[in-house]
Amino acid sequence: MRKKIAILGSTGSIGQSTLKVARHLASDLEVVALAAKSNIDLLERQAREFRPKLIAVYDPLSAQQLRCRLPDIPILSGMDGLKAVAAFPESDFAMLAMTGSIGLTPAICAIEAGKQIGLANKEILVCAGELVSQLAKKHKVPILPVDSEHSALFQCLKGEKSASVRRLILTASGGPFLHKSLDALSSVTPEEAKVHPNWSMGPKVTVDCSTLINKGLELIEARWLFDIEPDRIEAIIHPQSRIHSFVEFVDGSMLAQVSDPDMILPIQYALTYPDRKMGLLAPYDFVKNHTLTFFPPDYRKFPCLQIAMQSLKEGRSYPCFLNAANEILVERFLKGDISWKEIGSKLDQLISSHHPQNLLTLEAVLEVDGQARKKASVA
Question: Whole-prediction pTM value?
Answer without folding.
Answer: 0.94
